[in-house]
Amino acid sequence: MLGQSISRNSLLLALFAVCTTALIAGTFLFTKDKITLQKRMAEERALLEIVPRSRHDNSMLDDTLDAGPDADGLGLAEGRKIYLARAQGQVVAAIIPAVAPDGYSGVIDMIVGVNRDGSIAGVRVLAHRETPGLGDKIDLKKSDWIMDFDGRSLQNPEQEGWAVKKDKGVFDQFTGATITPRAVVSATFRVLQFVEANRNTLFGEQELGPTGDKS
């Protein structure tokens, strides 16, 4: 009797596990496309904050170049995408992924939009672990500090000006938190240097396909 009871309970548990697994798998498959769509829409919103629809006529999410750890100055630990904004086939801006490795509480994940003329279209911080109320002012939701990069370039200011004011640069630091803005300023400057070194690839007259191959 005891053996039969154990066998019956084991069978019930196994059946329950199978049903639960099937339910979870079914839920995942049912919501997978919806999750993918929502993620794509959120990603597109971040890009459109930097390069609005009025400036381009392509889908930036589908017009990309690959960037990885070998992309000098970007600080990437893994493969990422560079997004291209086009108007009538010409690239008007590129949105570059970058990582500031020297934040106060760790790495700061960013994207930097750079216009064809070398000026900054916008900078956004995607993820960070900086101190709430201090370093988190790099987040546009917390402060408009990040907007000071708009329109800047390698010549505006000159190289020595690409620093926080405490280091004799032109960018404000935060009270009680200098390390965080210093890291973002440095990472943004490195992106501008990367763009300048790769202008032909990013903004060349030759058309670039969705994967970055020249056509």
Automatic annotation (TrEMBL):
Where is it located? Cell inner membrane
Q: Does the keyword Electron transport apply?
A: yes
- Residues carrying FMN phosphoryl threonine: 178
Report the InterPro entries cross-referenced here. FMN-bd (IPR007329), Ion_transpt_RnfG/RsxG (IPR010209)
The UniProt keywords, alphabetically, are: Cell inner membrane, Cell membrane, Electron transport, Flavoprotein, FMN, Membrane, Phosphoprotein, Translocase, Transmembrane, Transmembrane helix, Transport
State the source organism's domain of life: Bacteria
- Enumerate the transmembrane spans: 12-31
- In what way does this protein cross or attach to the membrane? Single-pass membrane protein
EC number(s) per UniProt? 7.-.-.-
Offer one Pfam family short name for this entry. Answer: FMN_bind
Q: What class of enzyme is it?
A: translocase
Keyword set includes Translocase: yes
Main localization category = membrane
Which cofactors are required for activity?
A: FMN
The record, for NCBIfam families, names:
PRK01908.1, rnfG
Please give the family membership noted in the entry.
Answer: Belongs to the RnfG family.
Protein name, per record: Ion-translocating oxidoreductase complex subunit G
Q: What organism is recorded for this protein?
A: Candidatus Marimicrobium litorale
Q: Which gene encodes it?
A: rsxG
